[in-house]
Amino acid sequence: MREPLTEEKVFKDPVHDYVYVRDQTIWDLINTKEFQRLRRIRQLGTTYLTFHGAEHSRFSHSLGVYEITRRIISQFERSGYPDWPAEERLVSLCAALLHDVGHGPFSHSLEEIFDTDHEVWTCNILQGNTDINKVLRQVSEDFPDKVAAVIQKKYPKPIVVSLISSQMDADRMDYLLRDAYFTGVNYGTFDLERILRVLRPYQGKIVVKESGMHAVEHYLMSRYQMYWQIYFHPVTRSSEIILRQIFRRAKELNEQGYTFRWMAAPLQQLLNNSLSLEDYVKLDEPLAQTAFAEWAEESDELLSDLCRRFMNRQLYKYVTIDNPDESLLLEVADALSSIGLNPDYHMEIDYPFDLPYDVYRPDQNNGEKREKAPILLLDNEERISEISMKSDIVRSITGLHQGQYHLYFPEEPLRENIERLPERMVKLFKLD
Prior knowledge:
This protein is an alpha+beta fold. The chain folds into 2 domains: 4-231, Hypothetical protein af1432, CATH 1.10.3210.10; 234-352 and 404-428, Growth Hormone, Chain: A (Up-down Bundle). The protein is built from 22 helices and 9 strands. A hairpin with a 3-residue loop joins strand 1 and strand 2 (17-23). Helix 1 runs parallel beside helix 4, helix 4 (89-98) runs parallel beside helix 9 and helix 16 crosses helix 17. The radius of gyration is 24 Å and the shape is globular. This is HD domain-containing protein.
């Protein structure tokens, strides 16, 4: 086991005021090249094209998750709660710090096109030939595997997993507060201090004192609002669609043997589905955006147009439609084809939905395990109940939010060819 730092390190943070580092292992992990790479990965992907302040990184978010986890554990230790396994402190802090280290540029769009998983890459980084692995092995030879098991939700003590992966974990609490701060909205704010004070370790789980239920309700409502006002904003969804189309077209051209005017080795391996760990950690958003700037000059008109749109924020327009059926979508596709557009790339239906809180009661779910642990309340007589059993507010938001269908398309070529479009399509696209 490694010694603590001789002098505490402090990061000034706009959300938590300060982030405190007291362990040599944590300090060394922060200074690895793999963790420093997170400075070059935006936390909110393309949201900066909608909310210009959303330039914060996964580096700052990861520090925030670490800090919330540190504060929770410190509170448990100060209070001397017997149900907190004190020996799990360092593995919990390392998992909190490193939980996002495997994210790639514009990660979720990248994952969808190339069928990758950032948690798999996170574990590859923890367990592979990396600087992070070397630091973790200084604790013990099996320590990288322990941290990876927490990320994989396979760690033998669920209380450790729930710190960073539950329905009210350090990850969610930080990203809501941080994303609200940098997008300049109030939706994501909630009383973090109150929540931290009412958390308790109890019988291998983390529970909430029932007196703190209203603070948890506020947190869940904040999450609900952030998803519908920020994460699912239709303009952000438009930029994500174009981003996915860029990667999809580049992959398609690569499979056809197309010669790109510029290509970095990690991107080439990505398109070939042959990424090594060494090249994966070279992928970041500056590299991706350099490629987009170069590809904007490609001879392939489709890739060139998509890249110019993304780099210059010339996004697809959207219209709201009710329950589009197959015949309508075929009619739209035919209309786009008639003016020389490619329906596979120039139209997309988007229907975002979210489950603000997943009610989990084994007796009503045939024992099925949920990915995220439920929020449990502890009353004065030490009885545990799932929060929706006590909260009218939580029950009211447990159903899927009924979103709207949005049809996305490039407006300019449709306006230029408006006389060639059926009147029904002109009205649908709101070109009149």
